[in-house]
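Researcher: Please translate sequence to structure tokens.
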Amino acid sequence: MRDSRTAFSLLELLIAMAVIGALAAASLAGYSAITRASALNTGAQLVSDALTEARQDAMTQNMTVEVRLYDVPASGAPSRAYRALQLHWLKADGTTPGATHPLFLPASVVLDASLLHSTLIAGNDQKPPTDATDPMLNGQTHIFHFLPDGSTDLTPASPWFVTLRAATASDPAHFPSDWACITVDPTTGRVQVYRP
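Model: Translation complete:
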């Protein structure tokens, strides 16, 4: 008499494992995309908030605020990229104390430094004076200022913006589909964020 219980064959088990593996890989790719998008949103909000704060501080304190964009290495990596910014007061005596602590982008996000994508970095030749109190300052640091009336010292005839992208998407010929652009109106100092 034949047993009515049946079992899976080895082939059926292998097929089931392959299907489970494919589903896991697809969900992992989706999770990675969501994580990258979230980090990009966080970075864009950080930069936008810092620039808005700089403008508001300049107007409320009736003092020029300097924005410094830093080229720094990633934690544990030798490669450098624009990953941080800090606000500094520009005092009448020539000192530039920090108005905020340095603000670092999420580890997976950088400010694109190409002229096509970030005029605040590649199209801006303003460099900070020597400041022994700023350990992140180097020859690649770029600056601009928010003035007490809320405007900036950027040339009004040019568009001023900075683009955030994933740190791994570094090929300028193939710009990633997920990015964020923060614009600064040079005349009013108003900041806007654009996302695709």
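Researcher: Any highlights?
Model: Strands lie at 64-73, 80-90, 103-104, 109-111, 142-146, 160-166, 180-184, 191-194.
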